[in-house]
Design brief:
This protein has a four-stranded antiparallel sheet with strand order 2-3-1-4. The protein is α+β, with helices and mostly antiparallel strands and about 110 residues long. It has helices spanning about 10-25, 65-75, 90-100; strands spanning about 1-10, 30-45, 45-60, 80-85. Helices cover about 30% and strands about 40% of the residues. It has one domain (about 1-100): 2-Layer Sandwich (Alpha-Beta Plaits), CATH 3.30.70.120. The protein is elongated. The longest helix has 13 residues, at about 10-25. The chain is built from three helices and four strands.
């Protein structure tokens, strides 16, 4: 079992920065960035549209809370969408993800 984290960022660069923070903290094994998604939502009751970048990160269930905290600390939105989903995986891929993530202590914010 793995955990997928899903979040939207206002720019590709801000998503890259969050991805780097997650990888440097060894909180995730990898991130996928999907730039240029069109989002429509209500913000303070007003219909709003924005171009955003989707970040999808793969981690273990044990590291998910730590990874969410890092995402929140590196997120520029006032109210970021940070969602997590349980995901089945091949045993080999799950083992690879597990071998990549480790709870480490460093000075990066969110750790």
């Amino acid at each position: 079992m793995l955990t997928l984290l899903y979040s939207l960022f206002p720019t590709l660069e801000s998503a890259r920065e969050a991805c780097s923070a997650l990888l440097n903290a060894r909180a995730v094994a990898c991130c996928n960035l999907l730039p240029t998604v069109e989002s429509h939502y209500l913000w303070h009751g007003v219909p709003t549209q924005a171009t955003e970048t989707i970040l999808i990160a793969k981690t273990t269930p044990e590291m998910a809370a730590h990874a969410r905290a890092i995402l929140a600390a590196h997120h520029p939105h006032e109210c970021p969408a940070i969602l997590s989903f349980d995901a089945d995986s091949t045993p080999a891929f799950a083992a690879w993800v597990g071998s990549c993530v480790t709870l480490t202590k460093n000075t990066d914010k969110g750790d």
